[in-house]
Amino acid sequence: MTIIIVLLSILLLIVMVSALRINAFISFLVVSILAGILLGIPLGKVTASVEKGMGDVLGSLAIIIIIGAMLGKLVAESGAAQKIASVMMDICGEKYIQWGVVTTGFLIGIPLFYGIGFVLMIPLIFSIVYKYKLPVIYIGLPMLAALSVTHGFLPPHPSPSALVIQFKANMGLTLLYGLIVAVPAIVIGGPVFSRVLKNIPSNPLASFVPVEVPESSLPGTFNSFFTALLPVLLLLGATVFALIPSSDPAVAEFFAFAGSPTIVMLIALFSATLTLGVFQGKKIPYIMGIYGDAIKDVAMILLIIGGSGALKQVLVDSGVSEQIAVLLKDLHMQPLFLGWMIAAIIRFCVGSATVAGLTTAGIILPLMNTTHTDPNLMVLAVGAGSLMFSHVNDSGFWMFKEYFNLSMKDTFKSWAAMESIVGVVGLLGVLLLNQIL
């Protein structure tokens, strides 16, 4: 009965947003409250779950998305995005531009959390699309496939790192195997799959439409790249320093503070205000006007992402993931496939890749011990399963839909399909490695 309620809740959300054209945020609130009541959460705690879910997801993303939008709009308005697009096109050419952006997404995705990488790369994607009149999904999906795969498969991302610890795997080996599995998953789910999506109509957020600036007025190449990628460089530096042992707790505490995404984004925004604003002859009121417009553009996106967090929390608090795991744990299957399947089903019902991965870990661990399954490969199998079936209860689904301004149907055809493709290819890669090792 629990599964039926979850499926009906998801169906109702799709109908409200797509068929009835009800605002997605309002739809999320209504469906979350109904789902909580039907799934047996006490009436006094239903709204608490909704509020907690919104708070949790917005607490980690609101500052990043807002500052990222400000930074992205300044990069677009100043001509830096135009300069970056020109340089990348000169290096790769239009024929190979997909491989340029997918490589960028992969390198950035290793150290950065998905949400941060997504927000930072959106201006780059849109600048290439608008300047060279290329299909937006054709360019954008490969980069986002790379970000998604690194998030699900590779340490130091939260879920793979936690799974390494729980399964007593080797972090280095898991990373090595993960890179072997990740590359074909990204290639098939990104550049290969996106070739069939060239005709999907998309009108991305106007905030990131680069203003055509005369060549003589463009910022320099170094200035453009350095400013746009400064958050990535700072986060990379903080990650490296965090790995260096320090006998002074104050030093470690400083780098932990300075390396937090909030501080990194603030530093990057302050730097961009100077390098792309003040030093280019722009007045502070003009720059602040750009930032104000950027906030307006992402306000509804924030609310929708918060709504998806509310539905996710209701499903988690109702115990859906545990019930699914209990139903599946006694199935006699290859352990790696079973771990992947449990994670995939929990992901479909709950919407969070991290929740799916960590819930699966507690269920599959006893089976691993009795079957002597390679723990490094199990981390990857569960990670691949946790990327499957992204849909309306996943904040990533809505970020993609709203930033790229797609219909629900086209979001399913592109984003949801890509996530399932990388999940299946990841599983096949793990099973192949299991035969070789």
From TrEMBL:
It holds the Pfam family GntP_permease. GO terms for molecular function: gluconate transmembrane transporter activity; L-idonate transmembrane transporter activity. Coiled coil: none annotated. Keywords: Membrane, Transmembrane, Transmembrane helix. GO terms for cellular component: plasma membrane. Signal peptide: none annotated. InterPro entries: Glcn_transporter. The chain crosses the membrane at residues 29-50, 57-76, 96-129, 136-154, 174-193, 225-244, 256-278, 298-316, 336-365, 377-400, 412-433. PANTHER family: GNT FAMILY GLUCONATE TRANSPORTER, GNT-II SYSTEM L-IDONATE TRANSPORTER. This is Gluconate transporter. It comes from Pedobacter antarcticus 4BY. The lineage of its organism: Bacteria, Pseudomonadati, Bacteroidota, Sphingobacteriia, Sphingobacteriales.
